[in-house]
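quick one: uracil bound model?
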Amino acid sequence: MSDAVSIIAAKRDGHTLTSAQIDWVVDAFTKGVVADEQMSALAMAILWRGMTRPELSRWTAAMIASGSRMDFSSLPVPTVDKHSTGGVGDKITLPLAPLVAACGAAVPQLSGRGLGHTGGTLDKLESIPGWRADLTGDEIHSILADPAVGAVVCAAGADLAPADKRLYALRDVTGTVESIPLIASSIMSKKIAEGTGALVLDVKVGAGAFMKNLSDARALAEAMVALGTDAGVRTVALLTAMDSPLGLTAGNAVEVEESLEVLAGGGPADIVELTVTLARTMLTAAGIEGVDPADKLADGSAMDRWRAMIAAQGGDPGAALPVAKESQVITAESDGVVTALDAMGVGVAAWRLGAGRERQGQPVQAAAGVRLHAKPGDRVLAGQPLATLYTDTPEKFEHATAAIADAWTIGDAYETSPIVIERVGL
Ligand code: URA
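yep, here:
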């Protein structure tokens, strides 16, 4: 027989929790027997004391067991998914899911909505007229089984790791988000419950990311790879740079537009590089050989899959995307080379323009966002446009401009640095 107070005290005093204690506390929390304040205290004790690898595996398994687990083992092709820990301008899922499907895998991508400065994949796709994020399990299955589609990006249902949903809401208001075991188990419980056979994690590192330094990012990647591996999911992580935004857009419809450029064989070089690298890593993790994703971008088959994927979820892939009612341009104050562009400043500006939300459940503006005209390495002259800001509500310009105005550092020389920093696993 367990009780919440002795479990909290055990972790507070630095002991390893037993499997029985973990199973009991997560189950009792899901049923409302363990109170929110008790789970919050336990989260704080875990933040300070950490968890061993077996403890963390069991904790994650208990989170998964709080809901139902999807099963795609009857599909004739391997399943593989990608998860990003979140970055500014990170629209990679949009070209990546149809691209990997075009290469022969099925991609079940259950995503979230944006909260804060990094934006949400579902919010971006919802700027496409008619597209819907909420699908039933049967709909997900039949889209994945359709050989002309094979990729789905939709909202995670309420029954997918419900204990994590409740715990995340508590962590958000109790200063306990920044715990590597809690972040790793939160992400991996949802990804394992989603039923994918292989998983590639894009762990962002830098000023615009959750993990600001390489050693924290590496520790998070190692914890997640271990959890996936222990659960039988072939898991690999790439640590990738998030100091400046990815691509030239941050927002909703503007990011869809840029993804379409990539699917049409163009688009910014950093987006193309990361999309193709992640696609190759996903195919290797899924055991698919002999197909080069770069060819599938060039020959139009990834774009065909995109159109089929959008249509399968009620969207009109040919419809015009929403355009903002108002725009305002930010200009350079001096001549020189852009040596740095602060991703956080750009992300916060897009969010303040209306592309993101402050509280769960708030609507977002489809057309709000930022289009960048100068990124690190570009030469600029005083007065030249650095970015255009878009919103339907012009009173937001002042607050957004305050966030982005100092985001560019203009100097003399710029040294390029790689997007993919390191690989963990497989
Ligand atoms: N994303 C999640 O899903 N959970 C966390 O704890 C942090 C980021």
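Residues 18 and 55 are 7 Å apart (CA to CA).
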